[in-house]
Amino acid sequence: MAGCGETLYGAKIDRGFWSAFRETAVREGIPYQWRALNDEIEGAEPSHCMHNFRVAAGREQGGFEGCVFQDSDAAKWLEAVAYSLRWHPDPALEAVADGAIQDVVDAQRPDGYMDTYYIVNGLDGRWTNLKDNHELYVAGHMIEAAVAYFQATGKRALLDAVLRLVDHIDGVIGPEDGKLHGYPGHPVIEMALMRLYGVTGDEKHLRLAEYFVRQRGAAPLYFEEEDRKNGNAFYWKDSPFLYQYYQAGIPFMEQADAEGHAVRAMYLYSGAADVARARGDAALADVCRRLWQSTVRRRMYVTGAVGSSEYGESFTFDYDLPNDTVYGETCAAVGLVFFARRMLALEKKGEYADVMERALYNGALSGMQLDGKRFFYVNPLEVQPIACEKDAHKRHVKPERQRWFGCACCPPNIIRLLASLEDYLYTRDGDDIYVHLYAGGSVEFALGEGRVTLVTQTNYPWEGDAAFTVRTDRPAPFALHLRVPGWCARWQLSVNGEAVEADAVDGYACVRRVWEDGDQLALSMDMPVRLVRANPRVREDAGKVAVCRGPLVYCLEDADNGKDLHLARLGDAKGEDFEIEWLPDKLGGIVEVRTDGLRETDAGWGDALYSAALPVRTEPAKLTFVPYYSWANRGVGEMCVWMRR
Amino acid sequence: MAGCGETLYGAKIDRGFWSAFRETAVREGIPYQWRALNDEIEGAEPSHCMHNFRVAAGREQGGFEGCVFQDSDAAKWLEAVAYSLRWHPDPALEAVADGAIQDVVDAQRPDGYMDTYYIVNGLDGRWTNLKDNHELYVAGHMIEAAVAYFQATGKRALLDAVLRLVDHIDGVIGPEDGKLHGYPGHPVIEMALMRLYGVTGDEKHLRLAEYFVRQRGAAPLYFEEEDRKNGNAFYWKDSPFLYQYYQAGIPFMEQADAEGHAVRAMYLYSGAADVARARGDAALADVCRRLWQSTVRRRMYVTGAVGSSEYGESFTFDYDLPNDTVYGETCAAVGLVFFARRMLALEKKGEYADVMERALYNGALSGMQLDGKRFFYVNPLEVQPIACEKDAHKRHVKPERQRWFGCACCPPNIIRLLASLEDYLYTRDGDDIYVHLYAGGSVEFALGEGRVTLVTQTNYPWEGDAAFTVRTDRPAPFALHLRVPGWCARWQLSVNGEAVEADAVDGYACVRRVWEDGDQLALSMDMPVRLVRANPRVREDAGKVAVCRGPLVYCLEDADNGKDLHLARLGDAKGEDFEIEWLPDKLGGIVEVRTDGLRETDAGWGDALYSAALPVRTEPAKLTFVPYYSWANRGVGEMCVWMRR
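Output (structure tokens, whole complex):
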């Protein structure tokens, strides 16, 4: 295993595409979500989240309200705040977060237990339903928040609390006699414990994470025994996936297909990849690789969305990728970004970064309104608004983003990802520096006795050029590995303006030299419009193409193209027939893509429903495409990604 | 209103296509279903139906079992038996039916009440939930059975029982003060009462039928009041159709779109058309016409299936005709045949007979296995077996017919239709004789002082010729109106071998003359393979064609074409490029249709899921089509009707 090393922390993103989104997420999203957690958004479903902590802390009267895992929303919000404080210091916000943490910590029981659902409703029931009641899930998110907040601020209050919590969990659950041999119904604590391990170096944290991965699905099946012992219901008993909904139908080491609840799958695979790397466990890494391939080679939408079915928010079967009944939860795309990043750390392969980029720019980013205040849970690739209302199988698909959700996992998830995006750009393995994603900013690192700063200038994803300027106080011998995206067929490297030859190995082009201050490495990627097809085994996309450019998937909206988008056809248009235009005032600034296509008409049909006599009639039509992530920012309307020739 | 007159009863079907199906239905289906009603089919869900009658009659111990409307299965079976006895006398079967009727009659209460659910469970609850508990539905089917059995055998036992039942209903429900101002949650009693009226001439029966049509949906809404008064649940409160599920969301006279539960819709419209005709009510006929157009011009599959969604077994919205998640209940296609026949009686228009034929040969007939012993509830136009198992939205779609159903409305429905099919062929309006469907056999009628027999010879639907020989003992002046199907673009009439000119008026070509004994009228219809397209507003069929010939829709099955049928393409094949062949030993004898088409291959794709570089690769492929009704008679496999060019 030759991964791409360790994250280069401390990178900055200070201009360009992501900078704008991150500003929105931090300036609008974080305050908005704090108000949501405190039930202050008019017209939105109340969260009750902070209320629950204050009740558990004895500060407020009332009962527990909301989902059993409501605490996790606060945790994800705190995690997002922590990331934002690294690059957007805000003492007022930090004070709010400190206050929230105080509520959380004060709600903790003396034995370290931390879940307000059971603290408020009675501790007798705790740890009796690991399958459904999300205590370990909430714990996982709280651990992630604690680590992030400690790393960002140096403050230990929440970190100390989760250390007590983990000790409590370790005392109750594990392989030893007298403990519950269980594991979480909803993974996340695995990768959380691995982050905690990164801070503490405490083998106990790694051991517990590994236990949760390996115990999962082992016979006798813990969840079955737990159901029997505690009389818990098994909601999925008539489903095709049964306990695989919980990623527990078969032992993790035997899993071969991405199955069950997609978010749980992504989180578990991410944690497993962390454990495989920490342990140098090739067999476990093989399982991760197998599940990666199942996910991205047979069960992933072109947008990076995963989870084909609303039923169980789940994977279904190979090449089953319906565009209009898709689930494609925002959290699942975020989870795929997590998984991709960890596979990249395990193994240097451009495919991982390609998928990370695909999910990030498309199926994850689409989860947030451009104003940062509305969110999608479900990210469809084809929408007809009346169907969302009148067809029960599409009622989970919303034609517009919502203010908040009773189960509000997605909004803080996309915010915490955006707020920490600088951690996804660069990794380092000794003298090898890897650039995975292109974003304007910089990163600084020590090299020998010196310090090097790499300044990135790019207008990616609108343009395919990225320039890296090296700032160093002394000659700096290191290699720069630049990712050549899978979508890019022609590219050129130059150093200080002179072309250099380099092959892309495993998706990365490398220039190794002794860099002087001011040296510049430039990557120029051709970024034509691409007409992408799906593997012929994907029924729903047969005969169709998706218009893409760079990492972006584009779509048609009726705001630009009129209704009945299924009648729009590309005809013979090729990639080079498309015109592109930067429109700074449209949808927050986009490169719009246009071409001359066709539109089928119903001329002559009248009220006939079927006919062997009427020919296909088309008329020329200008087709206008906007980036998929930006859809549904202009009111309710139709949208489609895949279109006919 | 110039309809096509009265049914010419006493017609015979004694050879050809339908004869074989009817023999199967009677020889296999009727005995099989009797065993099913008595829980004697191994491996099938038990019916409990006859058990319930015997418990209600005090002959057996036990409770009521099965659906609340379980009695109706016996009624539909008795109705089918009645029809069969008209052309297939069978004293042993008649004795069994007489015994069943004795059970039914003995279960009746002295006040005329007849529903075993309440007789067994307690009469206190009767008439408290017209919305959901199907008492009037069961009554409707019992009336239809009684009329049919009386007409076939002259036996009055069941007829007298239902006359007492109707008097009981009339005493409890109606517009008068002190009665319940209700109507059935599931229509059928409307058309049943109209049939009873046809036998009794009792104005009360017509009045009650009309009341049920007109009261429906009137304010204050009876079902809402009933729910409130009796604490009944309203299952559909979150549905898009609300009380329109029951055809009661708005007054019938204001309805404009086919909405809600498709079978209820078809039955109600049928009863309303009967009432409109009996009353000569032009306004009511207009509503029927409007609902007809909504149904067949915007919401009907090419197979004549109706009901696009499994949720509520319901209509959805205009042009929403998904092929793989369709409901298309067998009963709804049967109901569309009922509706079409009644519209034809209201108004002479070929469209009604075209739809009747379309539903009969395709979406209704597909409900029965060729051996008469297995049945489809849902009739999809595209099936991928793994999806029926792994995709929750398609689990209602079965890739093979089932032995029986807990809710077994469909099997006896298709059997009773087939057993009575001779009543759908010919109608008479004075000296005008109409032929709506072509089937080998004969029909006899009085003309003046003589009797005329019309003998039909045809190999329809395999060939497009139909010859009518007149047998008469004296010169017979009458007009023969032969339907020229909407699918037929070229046809020729000849009398005694000499071509005659005639225009098709409203879909019927007419020859009026004084017929001599032995005169022959021949209709020769060109029957090429037709490549049918759907109105461009039908998204699911965009860019696709359905292969049809005569009244039959054809489909691809993997038994003939291999798996991955979505990869099959017609290419440039035109109707005239198809070869046809009569295969007597295949699927009970079919005309198979074949052409040279294409098959997309995944050559070069490897494990890539998306690519802008890989071209579409096709290879020549022989495509073999079989009639849609015959699909799924060769084991579990893929099927599709609509295919790409």
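The two ends of chain B are 43 Å apart (CA to CA).
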